[in-house]
Design a protein that fits this description.
It contains ten helices and eight strands. The chain is of the alpha+beta class and 262 residues long. Strand 4 and strand 5 form a beta hairpin. The longest helix is centred in the C-terminal third of the chain and has 24 residues.
Length: 262
Amino acid sequence: MATKNKTTAIEKANTMIVPTAATRELTPGIWSMIEKMAPVMFKARLFGVQSTEQAAAIMLKGYELGLSMTASFEFIQVIQGRPGLSPRGALALLHSSPLIKDIKLNRLTDKEGKFVGYECSMTRTDNGFSFTSRFTMDMAKKAGLIKADSGWTKYEENMCMYRSIGFDADVVAPDVTAGMTTLMKAPEMYGVALTEGGDVVDVAPVTVPDKTPLEELLAQFPAELIMSANNNKIPATPEEIEKVRKDLLSQQEAMISAAMRD
């Protein structure tokens, strides 16, 4: 029989809160900025996105959740075609949400003091609803999660902790996470491995067909812009294609900088 061995209450500071998904309005100006930033974020190759459209979708979803556009790439991962919140991303939303009063974690042990699992409790501020979820190593075994050299054998305490938080968030605060599946709740669904801190470190790669340099350029920019940047002709050589790409990216970066100043 598991007993509560250690309770951790996560205090929430009384700070300015970013609006949640239910109240943050998407204006034409914000959408215009996303459209301008997406090609730059894709071209940078720093965020693991597979297309301009994917970059735009991540920024849009992050904005609706209350994240900044650049932070969205840190907290939202697209795994096998589906967006999911990283453990840090889900916790960031829960911590900052005015709808969540407090979060309490109980470390569970058996009579001999051996770790058993974690229990998470959350309470809402708007209606007082609270719920407690538990996830134990026995539950992990029953679900077939414990495999050799997996996070469940290396970081069993953190894996149980994040799983209990994920299940509790689904019951208490699905509006805060905007209905997104949390990777801390079901990382094995997406073929990912987590660090001890719960961050995604190993994502099954998405196979993307190879494109020619010109096809890649056309995927980034409209044909009329490409022709305008190349004396009203479609670039034919690798040198022309690269020059057009650099010129157009430079123009976009200048537009983004101007939009941010405004």
